[in-house]
Amino acid sequence: MSNEMLWIILMIVNFTFILLSYKLFGKLGLLVWSGFAIILANIQVLKTVELFGIVSTLGNIIYGTSFLATDILSEKYGKKEASKAVWIGFFALISSTLIMWLCLKFIPHESDFINESLVDIFSIMPRITIGSLIAYLAGQLHDVWAYHYWKEKFSKDSQLWIRNNLSTMVSQLIDSLLFTFIAFYGLFEIDVFTQILITTYFMKWLVAAFDTPIVYLAKKIDKPIFK
After folding, report:
1. In a domain, 18, yes or no
2. Where are the transmembrane segments (predicted)?
3. Which of 30, 50, 158, 220 is deepest in the core (most CB within 10 A)?
């Protein structure tokens, strides 16, 4: 199966789970998802693949769902709840990075077989985390602000797609520029770095474009199964 097909399947799976999270647990499900998504995205982003003929990193889909979560919260519960999701994600990333950094300081037993893999994954995370934290806050706080700004301009239900895309796509551009330069500049050759920068935004842009129907579906969900 090609990377492109797997990418599409992965996007469908992510959208399915975020809708399921909201259907099962309501607002709480989206708040939990915000913390979960940012942690997993920072692990996935360490893997580079070829998508549509150019170099890309993984993590763009699940990271994009964090913007989807705040857009749903903004639409249904207001700016305060959407901002809470942003800060939950911020806290989750800082705490998980610190905890894993301390875990790596333990001297492994001679029977250990996983420590080197953990070091490979999490030793680079402080740089990834710094880039992600700065980009995440700048992008997400802009997204929450922009969503409500555009909601005042395009307040009808039929115009939901306009406020969703205008807020998310600009926010994703801010996020992609900040994160890519802080996290990856100097780690890759310039041509690979440029491809990662372009594909990082392009993939997030695609996720933002395809998540619009998910916002409409979420808007129709009234009561979670587990209150």
Report:
1. yes
2. 6-22, 29-46, 52-73, 85-108, 128-150, 170-188, 194-218
3. 30
Does residue 22 carry a pLDDT above 80?
Answer: yes
Say what the pLDDT of residue 112 is.
Answer: 94
Q: Are 96 and 154 in contact (CB under 8 A)?
A: no
**CA-wise closest residue to 193 among 175, 170, 177:** 177
Whether 110 is in a domain gets the answer: no
Given this model, what pLDDT does residue 53 score? 82
Domain span at residue 27?
3-105+116-219
* Number of structural domains in the chain: 1
Per-residue DSSP letters for the chain?
--HHHHHHHHHHHHHHHHHHHHHHHTHHHHHHHHHHHHHHHHHHTT-EEEETTEEEES-HHHHHHHHHHHHHHHHHH-HHHHHHHHHHHHHHHHHHHHHHHHHHTSPPPTT--SHHHHHHHHSSHHHHHHHHHHHHHHHHHHHHHHHHHHHHHS-SGGGHHHHHHHHHHHHHHHHHHHHHHHHHTTTS-HHHHHHHHHHHHHHHHHHHHHTHHHHHHHHT--S-S--
